[in-house]
Amino acid sequence: MKITKDDPRLMDYVLNELETEEHAAIEAALKLEENAEARAEVATLRQVVDLSVEALSTEETAVELDAEQRAEVFKEAAQGEAPAKKPFFLFRPAFALAACALLGVGLVLNGYIVPTKSERMELADRQETLRARIERLPEGVERFLITDINNPAGSAQASPRRFLSEIESGKDLDGIEKEMDTIEEELINAGMGEQYGLLEKNSADIPAEVEAQMEALGYLGDTTSGSAGTQAEPMASSIPAPIMLKQEAKKFEEWDDLEVGSISGQQAVAADRLQRAAELAKPAPVAVAAPPAQPLLQRSVPVVKAEEESLPEITTEQLFFNSSVGAGIGAGGFGGGGGRAGGRAGGALANRTRPDIATDGLPSPELVDELEALGYLGDSQPSRDYYFAYPRQSGEAYLPIEEKAFASVLQKPLSTFSIDVDTGAYSNVRRFIEQGRLPDPNAVRIEELINYFDYVPNTPVGDVPFGVGVEVAPCPWQPEHWLSKVVVSGKEVDAEERGDANLVFLLDVSGSMSDANKLPLVKESMKALLKELRPSDRVALVTYAGSSQVVLKSTAVGEGKRIRNAIEGLHAGGGTNGSGGIEAAYRIAKAHYVDGGINRVILATDGDFNIGVTHHGGLMGLITEHAKSNVFLTALGFGMGNYKDATLEQLADKGNGNYAYIDGIAEARKVLVDELSGTMITIAKDVKIQVEFNPQHIGHYRLIGYENRALKDRDFNDDTKDAGEIGAGHQVTALYELVPAGQSPQPGVDALKYQATESDARPERELSDELMNVKLRYKDPEGSVSAKIEVPVKRDAVTRNASADFKFVSAVAGYGLVVRNSQYRGNANLDAVVAWAEAGKQPYNGFAGGGNPRKMMEEVDDMEDARQDFIDLVVTTKTLLQR
Amino acid sequence: MSSENLTRTEWVRDAMARYETPLIRYAQRFTGSLETAQDVVQDTFFKLCVAEQAQVDGHLAPWLYRVCRNRALDVVKKEQRMRPLSDVEMATQASTAAPPNVVAENEETGAMIQAAMKALPDAQEEAFRLKFQDRLSYKEIGDVTGQTTNQVRYHIHSALKTLREKLRGQLNLATEL
Description:
The structure holds two protein chains of two kinds. By secondary structure, chain A is an alpha+beta fold. Chain A is built from 31 helices and 16 strands. Chain A has a six-stranded mixed sheet with strand order 7-6-5-8-9-10, sandwiched between helices. A five-stranded antiparallel sheet of chain A has the order 1-12-14-4-3. In chain A, strands 2, 11, 13, 15 and 16 form a five-stranded antiparallel sheet that branches. In chain A, strand 9, helix 26 (645-654) and strand 10 (657-662) form a beta-alpha-beta unit. In chain A, helix 6 (117-136) packs antiparallel against helix 9 (173-189), helix 22 packs parallel to helix 27 (665-679) and helix 25 runs parallel beside helix 26 (645-654). By secondary structure, chain B is mainly alpha-helical. Chain B has helices spanning 8-31, 34-49, 53-56, 60-78, 85-96, 107-118, 122-132, 138-145, 149-166, 168-176. Chain B is 75% helix and 0% strand. Residues 81-105 and 173-177 of chain B have low confidence and may be disordered. At the A-B interface, helix 3, helix 4, helix 11, helix 12 and helix 13 of A face helix 1, helix 2, helix 3, helix 4 and helix 5 of B.
């Protein structure tokens, strides 16, 4: 993609205002030779942005409320009502009428004034009925709801009719469209418009000459909300301030007669909406918890339940020891999605469970690409900006997960990915469940769920810093298939043998960190960690809030008192502005670099890590640059609100490090004390796995999880390509679902008509007794050249006597598939998951290799406790689904 | 994002810890006087006290800025204080009087940026400040000021272009470094 230096997207890129896919596309394009000018422009823009942020930050003075004012607010907060003397923003019917009349927006009056309980219940009923009606629409068409209201010009892809005529030929298209129209109207009336992507229409017009200018610059396209001509107000913002104020004031004067509280006309509508929505929030707690995801959750819950009911009970014995009995029952329960080989776009369209469609009601850019390629969209395709004009999900942010489909071994014999030792997704999912709601499907990264648990380690052989073990047994949720478990276990390093530690804590001390489960937890954990460190280890503290500050220069642990005092002195306060914090942290870490030691920056934050500017790309670039210095990064997420899962995970990824989510003191100890003291010792970096499958035995395969860790096959041998790190005692487990040769994957695609079938094409070679070959590449922590090891797996390794670990890991993966409502979950359901986990609860029980448990009993107990906690979590999840 | 486990007081306290100062600064750009800005912000938090927690969560920042902005405009109207631009400028300058962490070598550039910013059209300046000082997204800024995302995007792009031109000299220097 050629990018000119004047491309307005460059600014959005620098400001991190692009959607993930677009951001990645620009990032990739900027690396191209032909885009050198654009690259230079990005560098320049970053400087402008950084300088501006810096200049503005000097303006921040310590203005505060008076203590008295603050106390009054807290008093009101405690009472949960506003003081009688300050009745501002009380909405009155007359005002609401005026707003409606003035703006011509049809709004239901009931909603604004504090509704009575029966009104709220009535509204909840209406919302429920609407959801049911949407459910009955043809699959996929629901994403067109509202979009044509936002975009009345009627661009190609906003036309439901065009879409419908492709998938529903012969049906009553007029009827469906009419039904959609009424649903739309009622959605808006029921206050659900925004959930389905309704844009705020409260903006004023743009003066004609500005509009022309904007259009010339490519800002408009089909992307504006089509407000032209609907409102007569000039754009307030294009007028110098005093005039603007006068205009506002004039409006108020007119409205004073109506005893309007305070706000201007346009603003009234939106503020009203907020008010109304706030009042209406009570009847639908799920909607409140995660509004954008809610339609999906609502929809997916009954689906899961129905399938649980319709599937026969499966016992653990059947699955593991008599798997052939269960054959054939797995075919039900799949969505419309097909394999990659045929009709990919069609499958995607029909499949409601695709997160990128269901969660935001809009086709993903990839899908648009597919549609475009297939000629669905025609030439009038509006600019991509159309999509970016939509409200993005605020608050918690998760990158979409696109599950891998089954790949044909003949077409793609190699599977390559980077290892990932992150565990954050598991504790985050646990947090969702404990709060009584289902997790955002995109928060469920199955590999992190799996890697959260400890398994029986494989002993390293020779000089290799890790052991590799492979186990293949029938797949519990798809008994005709096999499941292959590849485990990489980092060697244990004796605490005595390790080099000195050089730790720099980079702590978010913004006001939001003051909760008991945030900064106080960080402090407590740090003090516990301190006890584990040696006197010659070093610790430094850098905080960031209103400004970054080096609280404690790198100090030897021998001077424990100074460190403890510094930790004690930490307190939360001020807004988040991490400018320079990360630079300072890395500078200290580099200055005290210990050869062969532990050099690590540990970031603890609860939210958006706004270093310098919000330009995500810049932040990632910064971290990537610093990671080259062999200083590793641990990213720890704390607390709830504003939690930016995607950012932290990517930071850890770019920073050669790991990421964990801390939801309580037990987790803090696990990560910061039990693991950090032992396993922050990186034993190998850029660890890549490549598996070659033998088509004589395996027809298709599917890697479970690791969606965002995929590498190109050729990257395996390319030492310049970054990959994951592994620490002492860390374990990485990857699962492949394998379809034996001669069988079709479930869900499958039809055999090709015009090409040789797979069995025809199977090479005439001497039958190999190998099932697959697992290859790993890794570098020493400070090395730059990789070494390779290979572990061939024999066909007769396939066992019916799976180990306890195998059963347990299947349970965890199965749980992830169920919670994600994955189309690949086969006959997995939560009851089956519990049964599998129970069968695999005792790690050393029935271990096929007859492993000699070298671990202390205590550690075995910990493993079992963690597994019991998982079982409890599954049971809790089940009660949520039944609710 | 959620705050189920927070009591209302904790929730308000948390919001206040984070947004009190930036909101006062923002309100002061409308009201001129610090005292009035404080009142406006106190009112904003009163409003938060009666808001539905779960509904505000996820867009706390734009919610607060919007309420604060509306309130500030209202107060300015009510008090019949049609402040000439120079007063607003003075207010801004007063607030720059005590910069807590000015890095010496950037002082000159900083002054230049602030001058350039004041020369921007008001809508651009407001969007620019909300973006770079308050770190709101385009969408959030639009929610605050009642503009579409594309309008906000346009304002910020225009402002960036202007500053880019003004800073040309500094930037070259910085590139060489």
